[in-house]
Amino acid sequence: MINVAILGFGNIGSGVAEVIEKNQNEIKKVLGDSLHVKYVLDIRDLPGVVRDINVIVNDPDIKVVCETMGGKEPAYTYTHLALERGISVCSSNKELVDAYGVELSAIAREHHCSYLFEASVGGGVPILRTLREACGHEKISRVAGILNGTCNYILTNMKAGKDFDSALKEAQEKGFAERNPAADVEGHDTARKIAILASLVSGKKFSYEQINCEGITNITSEDFAQAEANGMSIKLLGVYEAEGPSVNVAPYLVPKSNPLYNVNDVFNGIMIHGNQVDNLMFYGRGAGKLPTASAVVSDVIECVKNLGHNINNNFADLEPVASVKAPDKPAGQKFRVLE
Amino acid sequence: MINVAILGFGNIGSGVAEVIEKNQNEIKKVLGDSLHVKYVLDIRDLPGVVRDINVIVNDPDIKVVCETMGGKEPAYTYTHLALERGISVCSSNKELVDAYGVELSAIAREHHCSYLFEASVGGGVPILRTLREACGHEKISRVAGILNGTCNYILTNMKAGKDFDSALKEAQEKGFAERNPAADVEGHDTARKIAILASLVSGKKFSYEQINCEGITNITSEDFAQAEANGMSIKLLGVYEAEGPSVNVAPYLVPKSNPLYNVNDVFNGIMIHGNQVDNLMFYGRGAGKLPTASAVVSDVIECVKNLGHNINNNFADLEPVASVKAPDKPAGQKFRVLE
Questions:
Q1: What are the distances in angstroms from CA A180 to CA A168, A324, B129?
Q2: pLDDT score recorded for residue A85
Q3: Which of B300, B83, B276 lies closest to A123 in space, CA to CA?
Q4: Average pLDDT estimate for A78-87
Q5: Residue B32 CB contacts under 8 Å (≥ 6 apart), including other chains
Q6: What are the pLDDT digits (tens) for B126-144?
Q7: What is the reported pTM?
Q8: Rounded-to-integer distance, Cα B142 and Cα B240, Å
Q9: How confident is the model at residue B219 (pLDDT cuts 50, 70, 90)?
Q10: Closest Cα partner for A252 from A126, A147, A177?
Q11: Which residues contact B261 (CB under 8 A, 6 or more apart)?
């Protein structure tokens, strides 16, 4: 039996416990052993919950910790404490990965454990693992992704005729958008995710603050009508191009022939171009309790398979990128076109 | 320097040599070492080519062999010889995997090496690795795939107005279809691939011969017109359902809302449904020299990372499935609908 702890028992954290419980048989098959949630840490006064991180990191039974708290603190301090003791950490926290991922990855390597964060980008879509393992030998010239389910839900509804305000309102009523939707609709969430993807494939650390970021708040019903007349749709994309390098977050016109055209509602889609494999696209639920939790559990399994060894997550040695430019927008056009 | 050998220097085999040469820097980065093609084996009298498998398997320098010959013999005998000496084998040969994959995987395990075959399904799409590693803890209820690029090219052209015969002729002229296209258009190639996928996710060995197999030769332009009027397209799918279990190869009506609808030309798309992660879809070039060779190279890299250890490919212990049924077709309908 392998003991794990969950830090932060919100939506994703409780999902991790649920996936481990419901899929125990499948986990046992791939791991040859079962997973057991020994501790849950939360600031709320929940039954059976611990509030002192030291109880967890000082317990030699604990091999892996799931950090599903979000935000920088105390997630950074807790992750640091665990890794220093050789406990692997699996995170869904894109903000922390963007800000401290390089440092935390180096600490993991030094202490022969791992820092993995599949769930921080694309929810349930296994994109980081694929880039790292299946495509590590490819020269990746471009990554273009629909990375925010909230925006994609709103845009899908605008395509069907709604205006921005009522599409946002519906997303909020259904629980897909926060009451304060700025991080989503202004593109900052997408920027954090494309920064992580760009860092992984380029070997340089891209930071969220370096990225030109346009949201979806200025898109009108007329824009959609015009796009549709030209056989296109409008999608909020994060786009990395090796040439430059450039990274950009903005609404793009996506032609019908591109598989991202058909990625609708809360789904995410990530397209990559490798020099040998050509185009690949990965599609799945980019958010939501169980899909995201499933990605955390996939990381836990990989950490357990590699106990005592560091899994190279391609983040430990990244130097900051010198400069990032946004690609030019064609003069007089409101949107760029995804080629 | 890690020495490898390539068995069969046709389209894919020569592609493997090209990928290793062109992407040597990237390979070195992920492997910490370079790959070197020490031997090429072919029946043709090519310069620098060896014709005796014993030269290769008796050379202690050789750590990994790429089997890109196709067909059962001599691929089976050569693979057997290599694995028995602890040399890992990476194969693109779906026919061999379908017929002898279970036996060969057990031999690999016994001799602490690996038998991997990512390139045998979906060309450059990293689907086997994803099912094995990212989704090993999921209960997979369905796999539905567009698995044959030739058929998809023909069907894409029929959708655009061509009849079957002229679409086939064009595919042959462009080199996408064989002069004898039976294995593709009658669905046998798709059946071999869905048999491998079904085996991987179910834990039972499905054999190609057990699978109900309908091809695309009876599809008419009228069928496409009617499908389009109903907001659907017609795709040749291999479909596995855990319930039953059932496996089926046949043309299906695919609604616009399904991401497989937009998988066109020679591309492949594979959709899976897991109980936690929900729907995932993977898209890429299902055939072609370099994409397929890139998948072989990804396997080589994984074998080299695990020298002296067996990578569990989920095939070694599979018992034959007792019976496979095809799902019922609705009475009076020419096609099933992909839900």
A1: 11, 29, 39
A2: 98
A3: B276
A4: 98
A5: none
A6: 999 999 999 999 999 999 9
A7: 0.96
A8: 6
A9: very high
A10: A147
A11: A262, B232, B233, B235, B254, B255
Best A276, A296, A301 member to test B by mutation, with max B CBs in 10 Å, is A276
Which residue matches tokens 């616009």?
A: B256
Task: For an interface test with A, give the residue of B156, B159, B258, B276 to mutate (most A CBs within 10 A).
Answer: B276
- CB distance B135–A285 less than 8 Å? no
Given this model, what pLDDT does residue A308 score? 96
The two three-digit tokens of residue B148, written as one number: 């044959």
In the set B193, B205, B235, B289, the catalytic residue is B193
How far is B234 from B299, CA to CA, in rounded Å?
A: 33
Alpha-carbon distance A165 to nearest alpha carbon in chain B (angstroms): 24
Which secondary structure element, helix H or strand E, spans residue B204, and what is its range? strand B204-205
Residue A10 has pLDDT above 90, yes or no: yes
Q: Is B139 a catalytic residue?
A: no
How many angstroms separate the Cα of A252 from the Cα of each of A233, A269, A330, A338?
8, 14, 12, 6
Q: How confident is residue A332, by pLDDT bands cut at 50, 70 and 90?
A: confident
Find the residue in B nearest to A24 (Cα).
B137
Tokens of B238: 């291999």
Q: Tokens 């996408």 appear where?
A: B176
Tally of CB atoms within 10 A around A157: 19
pLDDT at A318: 96
The SS3 call for residue B317 is: coil
> For residue A183, what are the contacts with CB-CB under 8 A and spacing of at least 6?
A189
> Which residues of chain B make contact with A275, given a CB cutoff of 8 A?
22-23
Q: What is the mean pLDDT of chain B?
A: 95
**B239-273: pLDDT as tens digits:** 999 999 999 999 999 999 899 999 999 999 999 99
In chain A, which residues have their Cβ closer than 8 Å to the Cβ of B267? 259, 279
Say how far apart CA A203 and CA A206 lie, in whole Å.
Answer: 9
